[in-house]
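Following up on my earlier thread - several people asked me to post the actual chain instead of describing it. Fair enough. Here it is, all 501 residues.
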Amino acid sequence: MKHLLLRKSIEQLQAEAVGHGLRRSLGPLHVLFLGIGCILGAGIYVMTGNAAANFAGPAVILSFIVAGAACALTALCYAELASAMPVSGSAYSYCYAAVGEVFAWSIGWLLMFEYGLAASMLAVGFAGYLVSLLGDFGVAVPAVLAAPLFQSIGVHGGGLTVAMGANVLAAAIILVVTAVLMRGVSESASVNNALVIVKVLVLAAFVVVGAGAVDPANWHPFVPANEGGFAFGWQGVMRAASILFFAYVGFETVSTAACETRNPQRDIPIGILGSLAVCTLLYIVVALVLTGVVPFRELGVPDPIAIAADRMQRPRFAVLVKLGALTGLASVLLVNAYGQSRVAFAMGRDRLLPPLFRDLHPRFRTPHRGILVLGLLSAVVAALFPLSLLGDLVSLGVALSFSIVSLCVMWLRTTRPDLPRPFRVPLGGVRIGGIWIGIVPVLAMLLCWSMMVPVVLDIGGQALNGHPVPALILGCYLVAGALVYLLYGARRALVGREAGQ
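Reply from S.P.:
Thanks for posting it. Predicted structure:
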C-alpha cells in the first residue's frame, strides 16, 4: 500500500521537463492551433447530430453551453497545473505529483482509453463524410468497406448485431495519421495548422450561407417534450451534454505538449484557454444553423453537416463543406493521436508501460513504436465498432479524468502552497482544517460529475435490459488495466525503485 501511494516530487517532474529528449519546437500559435485542432472536430461534425436527434432537439445548443461551462472551469485547473509543471503526460503527470502512483496509473490508463476510442470515433465520422463526398462525384463506395463489423441495435448502441463488412476507410485514415505522427512533432504541427485554418473558414462559410436557409419552425419546440428516459426534455439536454462533453477534450491535449513547447509556462495556458473560447463560440453558432436548416429528428447520422449542406441546394457549396469536414476531422484525429502517444510516453518513461512507448526514433525524436502500436489498436476498433457505442465511453473517461485534475489543484495548493504558479485559478478559496478548498475546482468537479451521472445511468439501464456491451467493454478495460499495473507497472515503476521499495 505504501508503494501505491508514492509520489513524484515537483522538482523531479521539472527536471524531467529539461532532460526528456523531445524537441522543443512549438510556440504560442502552435499550441493555440493544437487545441483548436483537437477540440473543433467530432463534437460538431459528428456527434451534434446524434445528440440533437435522440436527446435534446434544438436545445442541443444548451447542451453545448453546459458542457462548455464544465470544461471552462476544468481548463482553468489545467492551466494552473500546466504552468507549474510543464511536463508531458497531462493529468497523469499532475496526479503522480499530487496523490500518488496508483491514482496516476488509473488516470493514465483512462486517458489512453479516452484518446484511443476518440480516435476511432473520429475515423468513423471521417469515413461517413468521405462516402458522402464521393457520392457527389458519382463514386459509390461498397457498404462492406464503410460500415463496421458490428451494427448497433437501438438508439444507444447497447446491443450489437454482426454485419458482413469492416470500416476499412476509417482504419485507413488512422494509419495515415499514425505515419505523419511518426515523422515528428514539427511536421505534424505544420500539417495541423493548415488543416485548422481550412476548417475554421469552412465552418464560418457554413454559418453565413446556412443562415439564409434556416427555417425558424425547426426550432419549435426548442426543448421537445420528454418521451421517456433521456429522450428529450431537460433530461435529454443533460444527456446530450454528457455526450458532447468529450468534444472539448482538445484543450487537455495542449497540456501534453508542454515538453515540446519553447515557453510552456506562458504558452500552455494561452493554448488551453484560447482554444476553448474560440471553439465554444463556433460550436454554438454552427449547432444553431444546423438545427435550423434540418429538422432535428433527421440528424442522427455520422455526417450531419453534410446533410445540412445538401438541404441548402447548393451542390458546389455542399462539396466545399464536406471537404472542410474531412480536413477538420483529420486535424482532430492528428492531435488526438498525438496526445495519446505523449501520455503513453510519460507512462513508459516512468516504467509503468513497456520500453517501446518511451523509446525515441534516432532521427525524428518521436516515440515511433508506441505511436504505431496505439494507431493499430485504434484502427482495429474503428473498423469493427459503430459510432453510437464509442461516444458514451469516451465521455465517461473524460469526465472522470477532469474531476481528478480539479482535485489535484486543491491537493497541491494544500501541500505545496509555496510552489511557483505563473497562472492561478481565479476566485480563490478557503482553508478548512488546513485543506485548501477552491471555488473553481469544486465547481469543476461538480459539473464533471453531473456529466458522468447520465452516462452511468444509461449504461447501467442498458445492461439491465439485456444490452450489456458498453458496460462489458468498460469493465474489461478496467480489469486489464489492473492486471497490467499489478503484474508489470507496480514491479518496475521508476519512482518505487528509486525509493528502494
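The chain has one domain: 24-498. That should answer part of your original question.
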